[in-house]
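Fold these two proteins, one after the other.
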Amino acid sequence: MAFRERFESGIARFNEKAKGSPEILEVLEEYDGRTITLKVTDDTVYVFKIGKEGLSLEVSPFNPPEDMYLETSSQILRRMIDEKKLNPVDLLLGKIKWRNISLKEVNIVKRLLEA
């Protein structure tokens, strides 16, 4: 669970920021009830739950949802977070897999991870 503390801290900052941002609250309203499952192949599964009030995190759930699903290694994820960008080569080589998620939503996830 190498990313847990980082995600929890980011979610707390994001939720605080969301309180004063009509734009963020609008996006949360649009995605209310949805989940983003992030499977880090050499770590664990993180489930980000989206609600009108903000985000929450569940780690290693028994039966993770596959609403919006991303899968990658900790090395690729760490690079995404540290460099604050998505490398198209990783996508082309299948190092990042996704289901039920568009590029727009991948960018939203990326911004959430940067929060």
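Now the second one:
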Amino acid sequence: MKQRIEHIDSIRATAVLLMVMVHAAATWGPPSSTQPSALVYLVSGMGGLAAPLFVTVFGWGCFHGQSTTKQRLYRTAFFVIAQTGVNASSPHLFDLWTPGVLTLFGLLTITQPLWLHSLRRRNHQTLMAFSSAVFFLIAFLPSIQGSSDWNTRVQVTDAVQWTSHALVTGTYPLFPWVLFAVFGAWIAKNGGEKSLFPQTVTTKAALVGAFLCTLATLIYSATYDLEWASPTGDATLTFFPANIPFLTAALLGVTLLWMLIERFSVSSLTLLGRRSLTVYLVHFIPIGLFYSVDEAQSFTFAQSMIVVLAYTCVWWPAAHAWDRLAPRMNVEQLFRAMSKD
């Protein structure tokens, strides 16, 4: 068995905690009428990096993993079924058949030979080709990703609509989110023996370029009194659908987070990282059961933020308690058992 890399588990833990925070904020967060504050911007900004970081570290794992066609089929089926379970536990967020990030993992798994093969042979050229193709299609065919209306992106009435949402028009479709998986695999390819983030003249130049582009979007938004970032709607950066400014800022944010966690890895996060899939699936259950609490209690801004942050942080010690009480009862064990060849 390969030795686990501590900072990779810390990255997985950070990714899943950010995902928990996003879903908690969508359920119990401050009302839309709340005046923006530094804390709101911080939570929103970090939340915007949740899925990109999650998909990037998934791509890293795909590169280092070995799997047969049969194993990939089992894993894909597992992810699609698990997504349906997530949807059933959170009806206030998703339709039952809405493709989500787990569906994306399934599609990335089944298409793994397509996007990994060329990266193993020509890593820099493959990353550039994927990035260029994604940015080109978004720039010249913006309608390909469908509507920016949330309800339209999560509604599924038939198999054709499910396929469309899973591939291009949903919340986390294969296009353009495969870019983050390719980025994660590129990190794995060039990370060296200790899997450090590759810091070459080229990567540093790209990092500076992405920073300047993101700074330009901030200046542009301030100059023309536009909202800088929003999940949907009229903003400079939008997540649903993912536009070029968002993808650029997300790649920058993932890079900075990755390098920061790599340098200051927190050992107590590693166990949570090893249970990241379990936490991702289970955290929807309390959200689904108590999603209407804030409506009944009329949470203030402060109360909403406390609830969101407390619910996020509680999964850190919960992962340790779970490991002590039931070390073999987790989704990762089931996943490995189901995907044995």
